[in-house]
Amino acid sequence: MRANFTDAAGLGKGPVSMEPYRSAAYFEMERDKVFARTWLIMGRTEDVANVGDFIVKEVEICGASILITRAAGNEIRAFHNVCSHRGNQVVWEEKGSRKTMFRCPYHNWTYGNDGRLLAISDEKMFFGVDKSKCGLEPIQCDVWDGWIFINLNSDNKVGLHAYLGEMGIFLSDIPYPNAGRSIKIQAYLKCNWKFLIDAFSESYHIPVLHSKTIGPSFSGLNDPAGHLQNAEFFGPHHSISLFGNPDYAPTEAQLVERLAYKGMASESVLAANQSDETEALRAHKSVNPAKSATWSMDINEIFPNFHLDVAGGGFWTHEIWPIAPDYSRYEMRFFVPKPESVRSAFHQEHYIARLADVVLEDLANVERTQKGVASRAKNFMILQDNEVLIRRMMDTLDKFVVSDTLEKALEGCA
């Protein structure tokens, strides 16, 4: 008998309110109680691989621009991207490398990669400025398994590893092939951020919404609905494994796909690499943790807005960033190898194009969902077991927005 994941998660089975998806008041609580005090994904250590490298990330819901640097001594640091002089943004590029300093383009106040204020232009005209007290404002920053996180709460006392808890242990030491090379898709969408979270959190929609793309890969004669293979729950975080059709093969009409994968030991449309190149990834204890013979991929959700997805041929990520109650930024990164031949380049281009088509199907749908929920014609969602992560996400959010501290919120999710 198939497992009941909703019961395993300790959740109820009744309708779930739609109000948090359209409520401006709930959005404000999410800003204050979730994004302003949880650990938030910023990227990979490979994004700042060398001393002097930097990236700038926006956390729009908190009005924050974050500067991530690799300083002398190889330490990765995070700062508010705000000049101490007049509050202008110091760095205007999204990424780059500056070996020694950042110079504010407004008045040339100059900072080191470690955040120290090094120089003030025309300093003699100021009134005894103490440069040691005017550096870039630091932000708590830490690294877990090559992933960079920050916490915007300067009073935060919960470390990253404590925040990740059992989820961090569960996923620890996964080998991430090609972590230094990625292709990014970014979109701004007229929807609440949780609709994007939901879109990539369940398999129930795949045979229907993606019937012309990956639907046949995620459902088959022995499981036409593509039921979940496994689910794991860790505090506010969780992981699910999706069904994969072992009998899938491109039809005669799918000439391009047949050509792209011909003669390759790959994982169908979810493969950026040949399978033998990702053997260590597939062998990890928490990749396909149930070791199901009908497995396609794992969805690992780190609360609140980071998806780390793993398949037999590689991995990719989703970041979902709220901007307004009905407006969000979506970012997806495919991590892929550098093609070594025309053959591998063709295979990779097909992989990216095919997954981009799938993502576009999801992104077009979330705006339609937003319109439907905003109409207030319906006030509740009726969820089934394969949508367990949606139910659990809403349950977790409700616990966070009523908790006075991050510590209490985590206790409520234990």
In whole angstroms, the N-to-C terminal distance is 27 Å
Sketch the topology as an H/E string, one letter per element: HEHEEEEEEEEEEHEHHEEHHEEEEHEHH
Structural class of the helix and strand makeup?
Answer: alpha+beta
Shape: globular
The CATH architecture assignment of the largest domain turns out to be Alpha-Beta Complex
Number of strands: 19
Bin the helical content: 25-40%
Number of domains: 2
Radius of gyration: 23 Å
Biggest beta sheet summary: 7 strands, antiparallel
| Overall residue-averaged pLDDT value | 92
Largest sheet, order of strands side by side? 2-11-10-5-4-3-6
Task: Describe this entry's structure for a reader.
The structure is a single chain. The protein has ten helices and 19 strands. It is α+β, with helices and mostly antiparallel strands and 414 residues long. It has two domains: 5-18 and 173-413, Naphthalene 1,2-dioxygenase Alpha Subunit, Chain A, domain 1 (Alpha-Beta Complex); 39-164, Rieske Iron-sulfur Protein, CATH 2.102.10.10. It has a seven-stranded antiparallel beta sheet. Strands 12-18-17-16-15-14-13 form a seven-stranded antiparallel beta sheet. The chain has a three-stranded antiparallel beta sheet with strand order 7-8-9, with no helix packed on it. Strand 17 (314-324) and strand 18 (327-335) form a beta hairpin.
